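Long-time lurker. I teach an intro course on protein structure, and each term I like to show students one example going from raw sequence to a predicted 3D structure in token notation. This year I'd like something fresh instead of my usual example. Would anyone be willing to generate the tokens for the chain below so I can use it in lecture? Attribution to the forum is fine with me.
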Amino acid sequence: MKQIYTKTGDEGQTSLRGGVRVDKDDIRIETNGQIDHLNALLGVVRQDVSDELLLEVQRCLLVVMSHIATPEGQVNPRPLCVDDLTARMEQAIDRLSDRPVGFVVPEGMIHVARTQCRTVERRLWTLHRHYPVRPDVLRFFNRLSDYLFALAL
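-- Reply from a regular --
Happy to contribute to a lecture. Here you go:
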């Protein structure tokens, strides 16, 4: 196994894709940290909820993080996976939400993941003010929080 630590971040900087150095509190790093947190929570949720779509979402989150960590002017060769998953989440939401729902008292890890998804969405909008975020990515996270809410019901 390759050595995990590099010591290159000891002074408060880290690398974007391609080696561009930025501060560890750069909005791109912060946003990816929030997505990573969401991904870990989805892993916990999957221990209780058998849902193949959630696993696909988790894999897609890694691709989204790669795109966020790609500096402006560079091309990320990994295709984004959000459009298909957004459509599939919408279909699942329609199947899951067959009755009107008002406010729900949150309970369980799925609601923790849902609220973390909302945090990610807010960070993405902050990021978008500094570095353009594709509309399909913004839509994906909005729909993901809806999907998690529908799953929680």
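Some talking points for your students: The mean pLDDT is 92. DSSP finds five helices and two strands in the chain.
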